[in-house]
Amino acid sequence: MPKADPQGKYRAPSVDGAETPGAAHSLTALAIVFCALVALHAPLLRLPYFWDEAGYFVPAARDLLQTGDLIPHTTLSNAHPPLVMIWLALVWKLVGFSPLVTRVAMLLVASVGLLGYYRLALYVANRNVAIVTVALSAIYPVIFAQSSLAQLDITVMAFYGWAIYFHLSGQTWKSVACCACAMLTKETAIAIPLAFFALDAVSYLGWRAHPSAEQPGAEVEAPEASARLSEKKSLHRVLIPLLALVPLALWYAYHFYRTGHVFGNPEYLRYNVGATLSPLRIAVAFVMRLWHSLGYMNLFVLTGAALVAMRLPPIKDGDTERPRIAFRHQAIFGLLVLANAVQFSILGGALLARYMVPVIPLVVMVCVSTLWRRVPQWPAWCAAVALAFVAALLINPPWGIAPEDNLAYSDFVRIHQSAARFVEQHYTRDRVLTAWPASDELNRPFLGYVAEPHTVVHVENFSLAQLALAAQQRDSYDIVVIFNTKYEPPGSLMRHFGPWRRLQERYFDFHSDLTALEAAQVLGGRVKWRTGSGGQWIAVIEIDKVRNG
User: Fold this and answer.
1) Beta strand segments in 10-157, E
2) What angle do CA 427, 433, 436 make, to 5 degrees?
3) Which whole-number Å values give the CA distances from 203 to 115, 322, 355, 418, in the listed order?
């Protein structure tokens, strides 16, 4: 029987008898998680800004810091809500602008998020499951890599965990506040209040169809269940989660007032919405989103172990079977995973695994609970999963990935640092032909790569078609900084699979970069410098022409 607190609300005890923790316990847990994350990320904390950090989020936050304006002016607004940018600008105002400050600030956000999932796991399972869920989530490669990056998805994850916990524990208005903050971080977090609304609406309609469920004599699991049945009578309670959409609507109204565009600049909208609405692309993307949620980066080791464990009978502690996470809680988790998979199959031009980060801890939690419930050696199994995650963090798989999905991003940043130093030392006044993000790295000193801005000539990528066009304008640049814009290992399993390659090229912006030597031949130059690490490379090509000095 759940126990009542002084306000008469009911709390679910964990299996090992632990109650919902108090503020001191939560602060201690937060401090432990934060210190552990900082220690694990120590070699990464001073790295310059990477990819979308450099392309949008850091410039937008820096604009806010310098001007107080929520609409960025040094980069085109993509209409992402401003909460992360506000957080970064505030931290920079208090502590100072640097990659170190930025990364520690984001690790604090990640720690708060992991604490939310810890509280959620305590509520629906027990302390053992909660601790292991947090540990495995923290070292899962995509979450680990994203935790210190100034991007949006880790912050969404932070609000997701707390929103679900508050929703399940009956703290409705706190849940609404967390949902609103999640959407002010990233508009796609709209999935969580809509999921809560859908579940409450179904429950309400079910009560309306069967009101006898609350008649005298009907079985009720606990006073908490009775209280929830009483809530179902009130339609306005079903609509409460939708109030979380109001701040997002106000943001879009403000954005339209300032820019004339509701959902960002037209090119951004076309890439992330207009170009994605093909039935075949949606189907392929949905399969990939499920893979990102259930199998990517060795996550299949955990989900596979849980499936195998389902064949085993529950362990008994005395005469009592170890309990599962309640079916209704698992149904909510499953709905959220499915809602995010569907949403990001329709929206988002890039198939980035980080988009599914907010729901990964839910998958981890259910799987860990299954192992705890059914496998006597469950700690050993979880240790094996941890080793699999660490391996995926350090070793790239034999297929293409986004560098931000594991520590490949640090290799990318370091070799780009080396290239920037070489250009500064040998080509101070030369015009540089390159593609994004190197174009921003060389032109924006505040990103941490160069001391002075270089004149940059942009090219879309380093495919044969793009470089052939660039070869016709050789007088506009002096050197070329070329790198692999798409990571694809030489032994990629999909490299020569024609149908998959054509799908990638048609729907997901895939292309093949020329090698440095091939590019030098096309452009009429010589490779003067080259380096690489972890399957990624970068080179400097000097164009053959009469040079001053």
Assistant:
1) 10-11
2) 115
3) 29, 28, 29, 58
Token output for 95: 């502590």
Token pair 């990464």 is found at 44
Concatenating the DSSP letter of every residue in 507-547 gives: HS----PPPHHHHHHHHTEEEEEEEEETTEEEEEEEE-S--
pTM score, two decimals?
A: 0.89
- Predicted confidence (pLDDT) per residue in 331-382, tens digit: 999 999 999 999 998 887 678 999 999 999 999 999 999 999 999 999 999 9
> Is-contact 406 412, C-beta < 8 A?
no
- The b/e string for 295-311 (b: 16+ C-beta within 10 A; e otherwise) is ebbbbebbbebbeebee
| DSSP code for 490 | T
Instruction: Report the distance separating Cα 301 and Cα 306, nearest Å.
Output: 9
**What does the alpha-carbon distance between residue 249 and residue 435 come to, in Å, rounded to a whole number?**
35
User: What is the separation of C-alpha 135 from the centre of its chain, rounded to a whole number of angstroms?
Assistant: 17
- Whether the Cβ atoms of residue 285 and residue 344 lie closer than 8 Å to each other: yes
Instruction: Enumerate residues 6+ apart whose C-beta is below 8 A from 451.
Output: 424, 445
